[in-house]
Amino acid sequence: MDISKQQVNPDAKTLRDKAFENYDELGIIVGTDQALASCSDNDTHGVDEMFDNFETAIEPEIQSDEKQTKNLRWTEQMDNCLGKILTEQVQKGYKIGNTLHTEAYEAAVRALNKECGPGFSKENIKNRLKTWRKQYSILNELLSNDGFKWDAMQKMIVGNDSLWDEYIKVCSFFIVFI
């Protein structure tokens, strides 16, 4: 594989040995595939059912800076909640193209505030979706290179060490010279 001719992303090195439990959901929520083939009714639970599995509510950690802007620090459990909620909303038809309808955001805000504690807003969800789009894009770019594969059992991208080393080296080269 000639990685140097591929478009590389310097953030890809952070994906080495990192599991993405919500990769299938990312494809449904932020991807362009509307088929929803990987998310049948048998594979997902309703929002209420999903929340029954939580022992305690999660308090969102909100940090403020001098400008009084609020940054929400997302936990894995919050990501899982949001992923399940938005997947369900997409299945209900509240996504056209890459755009979620207002109803999807409203349902997500209500459910997150109910189950994870107050403090969630539509803006928090939009910002999280920006992060997810970036992650999903990087994952798909990596998977477009020969040698990298998706391991469904481990929920991560796998490739041999020399492939990863070459890819990361090329990424570092682009960081220095761009």
Topology pattern, helix = H, strand = E = HHEEHEEHHEEH
The level of helicity is 40-55%
Query: What's the average pLDDT?
Result: 75
Widest sheet: strand ordering: 1-2
Shape: elongated
Helical/strand content category? mainly alpha
Cα-atom radius of gyration: 18 Å
Largest sheet data: 2 strands, antiparallel
Distance between the termini: 22 Å
How many distinct beta strands? 6
Poorly predicted parts:
34-59, 173-178
Indicate the proportion of strand residues: 5-15%
Oligomeric state as shown: single chain
Please report the number of helical segments.
6
Write the layout of secondary structure elements.
Layout: H1 23-29, H2 47-51, E1 61-64, E2 70-73, H3 76-91, E3 95-96, E4 99-100, H4 102-116, H5 122-143, E5 149-151, E6 156-158, H6 161-177
Antiparallel strand pairs: 1-2, 3-4, 5-6
Helix pairs in contact: 1-3, 1-5, 3-4
Question: Would you mind describing this structure in some detail?
Answer:
This protein is mostly helical. It is 46% helix and 10% strand. It has helices spanning 23-29, 47-51, 76-91, 102-116, 122-143, 161-177; strands at residues 61-64, 70-73, 95-96, 99-100, 149-151, 156-158. The strands form 3 sheets. A two-stranded antiparallel sheet has the order 1-2. It is elongated, with a radius of gyration of 18 Å. The two termini are 22 Å apart.
The gist of it:
The protein is mainly alpha-helical. It contains 6 helices and 6 strands; from the N terminus they run H-H-E-E-H-E-E-H-H-E-E-H.
Could you name the key traits of this structure?
disordered C terminus, two-stranded antiparallel ribbon, 178 residues, mainly alpha, 46% helix, single chain
